[in-house]
From TrEMBL:
Residue ranges of every copy of the Polymerase/histidinol phosphatase N-terminal domain listed in the record: 77-142
SMART domains: POLIIIAc (SM00481)
Species name: Papaver atlanticum
Compositional bias (Basic residues): 7-25
Protein name (record): Polymerase/histidinol phosphatase N-terminal domain-containing protein
MF GO annotations: 5'-3' DNA exonuclease activity; 5'-3' RNA exonuclease activity
Length: 436
């Protein structure tokens, strides 16, 4: 009896061991939840015209349906950057090139109160295989309702799809007014500095800002350094130009809630920039969330995120982040791609943004369907050339196909409203002439 028991026990243990080994093997072959999210992000980043880097594939496994899929290496998003079109030091092309060298796959150009650099950056990004998110950082003023005199500056980031804003003229008119206010603001700063025995020439500030660029605090600070009034930019800001400082001034900034509403109305994702710089972050977040705010910068290269991560959870905001790169060339500045955005955060961003951007595409193409003219086609491509342009398009339907294949994933293009647009434009007479 003892021998039989011993043999049965050995067989049982062997069976358990074999079953355990098989189960472990199945687990290794299954795609984890995070790997699935990674693949969803990857599919958007590299859809259609943009090819993944050859070194990105790391392994292949079977998903829940037995389909074998390739997992990719890290996908790098950079969601906050500036060029010489506002207060940065690099041209849009040079910014994209640096992002490419740093391994960035998705770059959002978010100059202050202007989208002037988007077309150039878009062309450079297309050549280098980077997906560009057209963006802008809007200067606003937040005024607590209970303390009407206690204003503070708030910056709101807007992220648009490849087609750009759905109501571009409206957005540009509002931004142009803010930029005009920047000239008045800079002159007021120079007046205050003169009263502090630190005179500056207006011509020098304008020259530093660059041709057609609305001057900002950074340009005034650089003029202060050149004139010998301060040792460096940090000194200029910490002593004179900080929010509420002795040489600080405001311009034509939008109301913070108004800016969020404008972004939502023009087909963008609205995110609060650098909340750690705010005096009253909770009050600002609460009010902007009510106005339609989608997200908040939480992730930073220095790893400080806990308090704002909790606030994001409290108010149901997606968690974002970026380097806020200006190209100053000093060691204190975070470089492009240095902020690590985890895969779940990227997935949540795209999960929220893609339907918004898809609706913007519908709105833009609907206007083209109502008036399929050459002028309106140029508006479609204002933020960068659409792929595969080859001179003359023989119908408005071809225009729709061209735009959809450049801007949206395959499943997004299979929408009933897009099919109606195709049918509406299928009999468009004449050719749309594209100026290459």
């Amino acid at each position: 009896m003892d021998d039989r028991y011993s043999k049965n026990k050995k067989k049982s243990n062997k069976k358990k061991k074999n079953n355990g080994g098989k189960k472990k093997s199945n687990n290794n072959n299954k795609i984890s939840a995070e790997q699935k999210l990674h693949n969803h992000v990857y599919d958007w980043v590299f859809h259609d015209s943009i090819s993944p880097p050859a070194s990105s594939v790391i392994t292949t496994c079977a998903d829940d349906f037995g389909v074998r899929r390739s997992f990719v290496g890290k996908v790098v998003f950079e969601l906050h950057s500036h060029t010489i079109c506002s207060d940065g030091y690099l041209s849009p092309t040079a910014l994209v090139q640096r992002a490419h060298r740093n391994g960035v796959n998705v770059l959002a150009l978010t100059d202050h109160d202007t989208m002037a650099g988007i077309p150039e950056a878009s062309e450079a990004a297309r050549k280098l295989g980077i997906r560009l998110i057209p963006g802008v950082e809007i200067s606003t003023i937040y005024t607590p309702s209970e303390e009407s005199g206690n204003e503070e500056p708030v910056h709101v980031l807007a992220y648009y799809g490849s087609c750009g804003p759905s109501r571009c003229e409206e957005l540009e008119n509002r931004l142009a007014n803010v930029r005009e206010g920047r000239y008045l603001r800079a002159k007021n700063m120079l007046l205050k500095l003169s009263n502090l025995n630190m005179p500056l020439k207006w011509e020098n500030v304008v020259k530093i800002a660059g041709d057609g660029v609305a001057p900002g605090r950074l340009h005034v600070a650089r003029a202060m350094v050149e004139a010998g009034h301060v040792e460096n930019l940090k000194h200029a800001f910490s002593r004179y130009l900080y929010d509420g400082g002795p040489a600080y001034s405001t311009g034509n900034e939008l109301n913070a809630e108004e800016a969020v509403e404008l972004i939502c109305q023009t087909g963008g994702v609205a995110a609060l920039a650098h909340p750690w710089a705010l005096k009253n972050p909770v009050g600002v977040i609460r009010r902007l969330k009510a106005a339609g705010l989608h997200g908040i910068e939480v992730y930073r290269s220095d790893g400080k995120l806990s308090a704002f991560s909790d606030l994001a959870d409290t108010y149901g905001l997606i968690k974002l982040g970026g380097s806020d790169y200006h190209g100053k060339g000093n060691h204190d500045e975070s470089d492009l791609g240095s902020v690590n955005l985890p895969v779940p955060a990227l997935h949540e961003f795209l999960k929220l943004a893609r339907p918004i951007w898809c609706d913007a595409v519908k709105s833009i193409l609907q206007r083209f369907a109502e008036d399929p003219s050459d002028a309106n086609f140029e508006k479609l491509a204002r933020y960068g050339k659409i792929k595969n342009l080859n001179g003359s398009l023989n119908s408005g339907k071809n225009v729709v196909e061209l735009c959809l294949s450049s801007w949206l994933l395959r499943e997004e293009r299979q929408d009933a409203e897009f099919e109606n647009l195709r049918l509406k434009l299928s009999r468009t007479e004449g050719a749309v002439m594209v100026q290459l």
